[in-house]
């Protein structure tokens, strides 16, 4: 697991929490920010996955 994968996973979890807090306090702004952070985290994790796959393929 590389740095991008870890950072992406963390952002995804933080975004999910932020979205749920927004729902709990009835704040559409927080819900949107949370969803955006989740999407950013998923993209960062996917980039990390590609990077990891490339590194793994070059080692063989």
UniProtKB/TrEMBL annotation:
Region ranges (Disordered): 28-60
Comp. bias (Basic and acidic residues): 39-60
Residue span(s) of domain CsbD-like: 4-56
Family designation: Belongs to the UPF0337 (CsbD) family.
Superkingdom classification of source: Bacteria
Bias kind Low complexity: ranges: 28-38
Pfam family, one: CsbD
Name this protein carries in UniProt: CsbD family protein
Organism: Lampropedia aestuarii
